[in-house]
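P.,

For your records, the input lines for the assembly:
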Amino acid sequence: MTVPEADAPPLLEQDLCTGCAACCDGTLFTHVEVTRDEEQALGHRFAMQSRETDAIFFQPCPHSVCQSCQIYTMRPETCRTFRCKTLKAMRASEIESAEAFRRVDEMLKAREQLQPFLIAGETLNAARDRRAHIAAKPERTAVETAFLLKLTAFDLLLDRYFRDSRKAMFLQRSSGQAAA
Ligand code: SF4
Ligand code: SF4
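Structure tokens returned:
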């Protein structure tokens, strides 16, 4: 997440993540899953929602401040082990570091260009809920259509470069099933 694994992460990876934080700030995900033990240990730090076998807290994460994790040493296992597609590809030398930084830059610029389409103070996840509501309407205004297309293009960019197939919103899952 904001900074990759603590076991001597290469500086390049730290630079990439501290300039991004998309996996913490609600850009990529709606929530983070934690174990029952983590729910107990970290419950006072997050507004957790218990589920049948685990718990979740919602993003944007309250501990992501200035693209940095404020509880880095005690962050949950999901955060410790997460690597987006671009970070994994850079680590595996499948892409040059310059390409990884270019992707983050492209994502940040696209997110900035999305801002005029959002309601003041609206998070990306709230905007996604609004998109679902608009998409279900039989008719929509030109402004609503523009918003829908812009946000969906952004989510496709995130699927392409950052979310793996299991978490993808629109691109095909590896099983061949479309994401919900
Ligand atoms: S989305 Fe990827 S590059 Fe960005 S902070 Fe998370 S792991 Fe790092
Ligand atoms: S706990 Fe830290 S690493 Fe996990 S989502 Fe929050 S800011 Fe990111």
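Two observations worth noting. Residues 174-180 have pLDDT under 50 and may be disordered. Residues 1-2, 24, 32, 61, 63-64, 69, 71, 75, 79 surround iron/sulfur cluster (ligand 2) (CB under 6 Å).

Regards
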